[in-house]
UniProtKB/TrEMBL annotation:
The modification N6-(pyridoxal phosphate)lysine is found at K205. One of its GO terms (molecular function) is cystathionine gamma-lyase activity. Its cofactor is pyridoxal 5'-phosphate. It comes from the Bacteria. Its EC number is 4.4.1.2. It comes from Agromyces agglutinans. This is homocysteine desulfhydrase. InterPro entries: Cys/Met-Metab_PyrdxlP-dep_enz (IPR000277), PyrdxlP-dep_Trfase (IPR015424), PyrdxlP-dep_Trfase_major (IPR015421), PyrdxlP-dep_Trfase_small (IPR015422). Keywords: Pyridoxal phosphate.
Amino acid sequence: MPTEHHADAPRPALRADLHPETVVVTTGRPAHVPDQPMNVPIHLTSTYVAGGDLEYGRYGNASWTAFEQTLGALEGGRCVSFASGIAAIAAVLDLVPVGGIVVAPRHSYTGTVGQLADREASGRISVRWVDLTDTDAVIAATEGAAMLWFESPTNPALEVADIATLSAGAHANGALVAVDNTFATPLRQRPLTDGADLVVHSATKSISGHSDVLMGAVVATDDDYAHAIVGRRSLGGAIPSAFDAFLALRGIRTLPVRLDRAEATARTLVERLAGHPALAEVRYPGFGSIVSIVLHGAEPADALVGRTSLWIHATSLGGVESTFERRRRWPAEAETIPAGLVRLSVGLEHADDLAADLLQALDAVAG
């Protein structure tokens, strides 16, 4: 006979000492009672019956909540989901008051650079561009600034920031600290525990992991900041669809195994690419699934991305499939990024197959 269950029995709270691999599987689930589904159903509704907390589809959805609970638990704060990563970035930058100063690295995601440049051109903010590798200079630049914004590793230079030191220095100068954690994911670093105020994700990338979702997220430890971010989402309407939130949650359930596999393959590729005559440099921060290789100019880099059968020429990253692109093909990319830099997003294919495909293309370019 099966053990008797009581539908009204409370579910024990999740322990705070659970490992991330357990958190991604167990958080954002319905109660453990008979006949409950294992997953939060997709709530396809724009309207709710009045008198409750939701009222209207722009203010909440159960699918968002389940995703937000899971990513928030991983990052150690309160998560707010958005329709895209760029929408999440915009919501955070909206916290900067008119006339405020933002300190940001020259090597940043081009969407972030575009947001900052647009705001500066309209007179809403001023931007101080810095070199993220010079920690002291970055902290000095935050004097009188409203916000320090940076990503680590940087896209696509793969520079790694000292998050704790930068956060402490910026706070001492009265600046808010926001970190884009898309490349590292909360499995490799947790900026909020290192002192950052806000963390941003393009959940389109490794979080969802299957190249079928457009979503973003902001995570904050301070309730006031989280409330302000929710307000920006409600006013701006940059809400994710219920189906996208469902897919992103399904994707995050397997993030640990996907990232471990892709990271192991990335390390193998770095070893096998070292010293290849077609390459001037191989960049890898030591963790994660992103590698940047630098060829001797734009022409061989453009030739490379047309000579593979497994690697896909595409601008996104973090999916199960391996993609690559020459970043300077985008006019908004920083001129300090080498013209021959090709960013690799390592997927889940076998390391030997990926290496062979890339090496034969490099041989052809070098030949």
